[in-house]
Design brief:
The complex is a heterodimer. Helix content of chain A is about 65%, strand content about 5%. By secondary structure, chain A is mostly helical. In chain A, helix 7 (about 115-150) runs antiparallel to helix 16, helix 16 runs parallel beside helix 27 and helix 26 crosses helix 27. In chain B, helix 3 (about 60-70) links the parallel strand 3 (about 50-55) and strand 4 (about 80-85). Classes of the chains: A mainly alpha, B alpha/beta. Chain B: One of its GO terms (biological process) is phosphorelay signal transduction system.
Chain lengths: ~900, ~120
Amino acid sequence: MVPFNILVAVCLVYVGFLFLIAFAAERRAARGRVGWLRSPLVYTLSLSIYCTAWTFYGAVGYAARSGLEFLTIYLGPTLVMVGWWLVLRKLVRIGRRQRVTSIADLISSRFGKSNLLGVLVTVICVVAATPYIALQLQSVTLSFGVFASDAPEGWALPNQSATALWVAAGLALFTILFGTRNLDANERHHGVVIAIAVEAVVKLVALVAVGIFVVWGIAGGWQGVVETINSSAIAEWQLQPGRWIGLTCVSAAAILTLPRMFQVMVVENADERHLATASWAFPLYLLLMSVFVVPIAAVGLTTLPAGSNPDLFVLTLPLAQGQGQLAMLAFLGGFSSATSMVIVASIALATMVSNHIVVPLWLSIRQRTAKGRATGDVRGMVLMARRLSIGGVLALGYSYYHLSGGSAALASIGLIAFLGAAQILPAMLGGIFWRGATGAGAAMGLIVGFIVWIYTLYLPSFGEDGLISHDLMQLGPWGIAWLRPHALFGIEGLDPVLHTLFWSLSLNAISFVCGSLFTFPSPIERMQGVAFVNVFDTDADTRGWSRGGAEAEDLLIMAQGILGADEAQAFFQAEAEAQGKAGLLPDTTPEFIDRLERRLAGAVGAATAHAMIAQFAEGAVVSAQDLMAVASEAQQIMEYSIQLEAKSEELARTARQLQEANDKLRDLSVQKDAFLSQISHELRTPMTSIRAFSEILMDPELPPGMQQKYAEIIHDETIRLTRLLDDLLDLSVLENRKVQLNIKVANLHDLIEKAVRAASSTQPQRSFTLHRDPPAEHIPVITDTDRLLQVFINLISNARKYCDAERPELTISARKRGGRIIVDFIDNGSGIPKEARRLIFEKFSRLTDNNQAGGAGLGLAICREIMANLGGSITYLPGQGGAAFRVSLPVRPPKEIIERAKTS
Amino acid sequence: MTGKVLLIEDEPHIAEAIRYVLDRDGWQVVTHGEGADAMRVLRRERPDAVILDLMLPGRSGHDILAEIRADPELHGLPVLILSAMGQAQERARAHQAGASGFVAKPFGNDEIVRALREVAAR
């Protein structure tokens, strides 16, 4: 038999293996090579988290108890997948267009970015997922127990509850490590998806292996299996049409509304076309998972001793036949089923809890207590909220397991969860197909359905005298018979699941429809309604912002707090480029703010993103144009106006480019004059000292000690003059691209090290703190290393000279991103005033005419030219607090630069 | 005649050279190295003449000259302008603004002594 320690060790090794796969996938994705990480096959396999431990162990138990009825659980999803064109395609399109992060976000976003709805859906999902997570804990615990009971004395499980607790804690840790390592801007978890795809293969292989063993190893081929089935209780099973139809509907609803399914199907979807593959491949997977269920159940019922738990036949059959290794494989399959479900479900739930409950709370507290706006480290807060939420979700699951006694059949627990999640279906379908649906209606439907579900199915699931007393179950509250949880409104004798299905969904849908008909949607709700329902008809995006005096820099600072600096800067830069502007700060047009909002929504959800933006853009004013677009039924008018809009946008872009070019030309002509008089000044100043002191040296009355000192001054000023001329010549060579390049390979770390050393010898000698991350600096660079070094030295000594903080600090951070090497130099001073930033890279644009600092104001101009010669760039980074410069360089020098280095 | 002269010049070496030369000529030299605070120093020191560089950090020499000429108490103060721009138009501009004399950099030591004496004697 398999000793307990080895079992635990195998689990740990398996988890470690998954972690490695996830880690490798994320590394790959970070390097921009997504490729097969997002293939239709991986997508289909990831959908298999639908098959949890319930399917793996529970289906056999289900078949042993109720015959072929277990097939309904596969039938519903199959229908949804085959009919993907109808609903799934629309969900995925909306999810992508609106950057939906979760099912709560979908509902909240559709009904006017209402946070109330977000909270409501989150609560329903968390409560409904609780029994489901308990189910996974129970199955893992039971499977441990199977090995324990067969084992020799010494490691029998002393306490099932304690085992479940350990399993829950382990899974929480695992999920936190897996799912919240960083905050993805678009909520895509490459690592997790790959890991669950691998687990999908493991569980399929395990179940098929057990099936093959049972059919050919025990029953002696299909002939034997058919005989066994005919002689077992399964053959006497009666078809109940009501339950078949009902359960098929429930499972069809569940695959659309379960948070974890929504996560893998919609949020993690990389390409709509993957749905087409999944529409046949996923039903095929389900078929393979179910084909051996009845044989295993029948053989288990006949060969194992009476009273064995049919939920565990998958494990106990191989064990009873002495097939320890096969049992181990089956155990891993079940373990995979449970872990993948728990991981994805708790990631999805944690996203909802943090986006719809924690962040809005934090925002409102921040706004009430702190003056000003919440822009700080939202990222860190969100991550922490997610980690805590994962812990909380698993704690709830464990509590349910503990309270319900861990004894119920796996299938019945699963159905409770399915029905809970299904309460979201009316609001979801109504939201994407019916423009008249309103948030008030959705809220009413959700609340009514949720209450009926809790009362008639969830609370009774804890067993009689669990949370609901025996009397209440039998006689109804206050003795009112028609309010009995299992016989609402006097309908008796119905199966509890069907009873809840009927009442909760019908009352839910009726409330939703009536509520929607009798309430009036707000403008923003209307706009979102059009955007959702007509998602295929138009590319026009609705807008909610007027140009409300938002400062691009403020928005950038906020976006950096949420998306992270790199992501936010890249987004702003792309937006500025699209507008025809240089630098990182685009004009805050309504279109830009809207795109920014959707980008932020990808990280923190629609409602929160809307609230964050609202701090800066004055009011969510809906323009007359938007309202017209909403009201207009005529598609032609809309399309025509879209074309016009595109044209006028293009014109505006050209105008902006022209304006900018014009400004630049005017500045350049002013600069040329200033340049000449500056040169004159810079040359005459040292010449004045040289002439004056050489005449003084000729003075016969000069005190004897002074001769030496004055000669030194002459010497220093001559050097200053030479350096100035060198700089000017250097600049002119660089500007004409005639500089001789000497391409070498070096370690970036060594270059920075050298630059720091060289710059520390410059004046002034004051205390100066450097922050660096040396391990990250070890990046090979292929370029003219002397020239790059010159740029680094210049930036570091500039920070030393000009940083006006009381305790000057400079942070140098280096990294490789998208084929470029990026080095940022950020000090903690007061930075460079906005209006001066455009000119700092021009010649002689020294900001303060402070000669103590030395130099003629050519440094940054030379840096800019050097970087241009090296095929890279140097830019000012706004929104960092102090003065901040970014040096960016291609990993490999462009071809023409290599050519130039060769010829020169 | 000689007396007290305030030298407003931001280049320390140039200031040192001028101080040496004027010292030798019998002047009491007070130096000040930037523009922003120059008027306060001027009112405190009450010099007999001012040598003013045009390119100063903080505040330009042109501004300072204008303020001197606008102040009735300082209206007659002799001001000798130092400039790294030697062109005629720069010189004319300084005179128009009320400069008493103009010396272009680089200058000979005799030149500055002579120019200061000239403006102080007027």
